[in-house]
Amino acid sequence: MGDVASSDRPWLARAVALAETARAISSPNPPVGCVLIVDGRIAGEGATRETGGPHAEAVALAEAGASAEGATAYVTLEPCAHQGRTPPCSRALIEARVARVVIAHPDPNPVASGGRAALTAAGVRVAGPLGVDDLLRRTVTLQLEGFLSAVRRRRPHVTLKVAQTTDGRLVAPTGRWVTGPAARAAVHRWRAAVDAVLVGSGTVLADDPSLDVRHVAAARQPRPVVLDSRLSIPPSARVVHRGALVVTTAQASTERADILRRAGADVEIVPASGGRVDPIAALRALSRHGITTVLAEPGRRLAETLLAADLVDRWVLHLADHGSGTVVGPAVAAPAVPWRLERQGGAGPDAIVHLVRDRTPDPDLEAP
């Protein structure tokens, strides 16, 4: 395995930029970018297409045609060695007579991994992956967070959004909205970047939200997901007509399930925990539906349930100052586990803080 040279980095960065264009469309496949370079020029490039479509390497090879022979391929994720909906990308690179492959991130999926070994066995020179602390590698890890969570934990990556006042209230003193228009627009950008938006039945009953993307150009709409242990939401709910996935338990009425299905929803039955939908079982059910990234926008009870079960990977706090003069911590209870500040900033008059769960590294994912 060769080292990644400084001259490789601009082309890897180009592959990372391409991968970013696939983040909202490739799931459940990982968003990957690929660039083919011949004599210092781009011969072909591409990103993973929608489910069932070609992977990034195939898109780049199709664009390059015969000029791919002797090229260096820059890919953000180790090319797969697995026959799925599409042929193995490692085989496609070998058959195109690519001379060298530079990899940013290893593939931890035991089903699809092995591309690096297959390339090396075929005489293709391979460099990478990058070290875990490398900035490009960390960017790719962020792009792959849904895919990596599915492999590591058999569940989607979960971002929890909580909007509160600085004095710890989840409801604005006056009016409907806790935060202002700029912060609410930021939520729509989050929705546009995930596979699903998750709430509990109480939110649907109280607000009848649509949980869709508005005011933002989106390649696709996220799927609404509702945890509803007794199937209490009505078939007229807007999320039902958007094809919601409703996760419930065996204690729910089969008649209610049939009504919701006829109205447009899918109903998934999972085990109960404490009389309610088991949150771990619910998230694993979402994985079976091809969902790898989730934005949770629940009420207090479900937010605290997700936090208590250590199912939150990113916690986004929207903080609005309504003039009380009091500043407290988060309005929802959370266990004392390590969180790392990812970033913080503002949206209009409101503050936004991003915290990520600082988990013990998984050797299968983090070892170069």
Oligomer: single chain
Structural class: alpha/beta
Q: What is the helix tally?
A: 13
- H/E series, N to C? HEEHEHEHEHHEHEHEHEHEEEHEHEEEH
- Assign an overall shape: globular
Strand fraction equals 15-25%
Query: Radius of gyration, Cα only, in angstroms?
Result: 22 Å
What's the main sheet like?
9 strands, mixed
Mean pLDDT: 90
What layout of secondary structure does this protein have?
Blueprint: H1 9-20, E1 33-38, E2 41-47, H2 56-64, E3 72-77, H3 89-95, E4 100-105, H4 115-121, E5 125-127, H5 135-143, H6 145-153, E6 157-165, H7 181-192, E7 196-200, H8 201-207, E8 223-227, H9 238-241, E9 245-248, H10 254-263, E10 266-269, E11 272-273, E12 276-277, H11 279-288, E13 293-296, H12 300-308, E14 314-320, E15 339-347, E16 350-357, H13 363-366
Parallel strand pairs: 3-4, 4-5, 6-13, 6-14, 7-8, 7-13, 8-9, 9-10
Antiparallel strand pairs: 1-2, 1-3, 11-12, 14-16, 15-16
Helix pairs in contact: 1-5, 3-4
